[in-house]
Design brief:
Shape: elongated
Strand order of the largest sheet: 2-1-3-4-5
Low-confidence stretches: none
Structural class: alpha/beta
Order of helices and strands: HHEHEEEHEHHHHHHHH
Helix content: 55-70%
Mean pLDDT: 78
Length: about 350
């Protein structure tokens, strides 16, 4: 038994890269989660943003907007949106000052997407305080219309949680394909006239279909149970389709680069967990430290979440979809280049 144990241990350490990554995985993931918890515990950890959209441009509206901006605090940052949209993922509310705003009859609209309890109340208190600061108290009564938007956490998690399982299932299927190749599947297919490139494209297509079904079913369940009805079905179909292809192509390319099942099995879970943690799939980026959230914004799962969330709100996020298309193309090219080299 001791001899057999030693043989198994030698087999484990024979691939030093795979052994190193296997031991590194829990340390790396704990580090990410620990940074998140430290961020929660820090006195200056959370810093939410409230956007101001001045549709009036009058003198009174400018005074009110300046009073709102002067209300910025350590945890709440109030800024004026010049394009009329609040595109930041940390924006919890948008305060709209409509045309015709006047101190004698002030009316504002607050669009609140509350990630945590009390966020809507905080935005409302901010508006009332700014009104008292900008104009004489008692001169007029501020009329505030509050519109509660679908929670950004639930909306983002519908895509994010699905992406976690999509990445793991994509890695699992790619790993199984490496095992099939090691057992001689590629050689048998070549004898039938099927090239390695055709086989690689077939794998990406199959994994993409499975990934899209996972994402589509999750979003359908979110619409049915949690009433997360997409405002733009076309944008959501485009976003979910290209996100599925990007995930499939990424893990097929990673498998081709690894070249062996043992190495890929050690690397793929680490990559999937890191992508999930940094991109906002596991922990929403609004809750992450700025340094981690900024880094995660350059990962393809973050683009998938942004594109699908934009579709839920009726927007076509062309930038995120274009980036997903680029990732899909680059990873497919890498897979086609390295796949013919075979499995070691």
């Amino acid at each position: 038994m001791i001899a057999l144990t030693l043989i198994m241990l030698r087999s484990f350490v024979s691939d030093r890269v795979a052994a190193f990554l296997t031991l590194l995985a829990p340390i790396a993931f704990f580090t990410l989660i620990a940074l998140f918890y430290r961020h929660l515990e820090a006195t200056d950890g959370f810093r939410f943003e409230i956007a101001i959209v001045d549709e009036s441009g009058s003198t009174d509206a400018r005074l009110f907007a300046e009073a709102l901006k002067s209300s910025s605090m350590e945890r709440v940052y109030v800024f004026e949106s010049l394009d009329g949209q609040s595109s930041s993922h940390k924006t919890i509310a948008t305060i709209r000052i409509p045309n015709g705003f006047h101190r004698a009859d002030p009316r504002v609209l607050v669009e609140a997407a509350s990630p945590l309890p009390g966020a809507s109340d905080a935005a409302l208190q901010l508006v009332n305080a700014a009104h008292a600061r900008a104009f004489a108290v008692g001169l007029s009564v501020l009329a505030v219309e509050v519109i509660s938007l679908d929670g950004m956490l639930v909306c983002g998690s519908a895509t994010g949680i699905a992406l976690i399982f999509i990445m793991f299932s994509s890695a699992s299927i790619a790993s199984r394909s490496l095992g099939d190749d090691a057992s001689g599947l590629q050689d048998r297919l070549r004898s039938l006239g099927i090239s390695a490139g055709a086989c690689t494209m077939a794998r990406i297509s199959a994994i993409s279909c499975i990934a899209w079904c996972q994402l589509a079913l999750t979003l359908a369940w979110a619409a049915l149970v949690f009433k997360l009805i997409p405002s733009s079905v076309f944008a959501l179909v485009c976003a979910s389709s290209v996100a599925a292809v990007a995930s499939a192509a990424f893990f097929v390319a990673l498998a081709a680069l690894c070249g062996s099942r043992a190495r890929f099995v050690a690397i793929a879970p680490v990559i999937a967990l890191v992508l999930s943690a940094l991109s906002g799939s596991m922990i929403p980026r609004i809750l992450l430290p700025n340094s981690i959230a900024s880094l995660g914004g350059w990962l393809f799962p973050a683009w998938a979440i942004d594109a699908c969330s934009a579709a839920m709100n009726g927007y076509f996020d062309g930038r995120s979809i274009a980036m997903l298309v680029a990732v899909s193309f680059i990873c497919t090219v890498i897979a086609l280049i390295y796949a013919p080299r075979g499995v070691r």
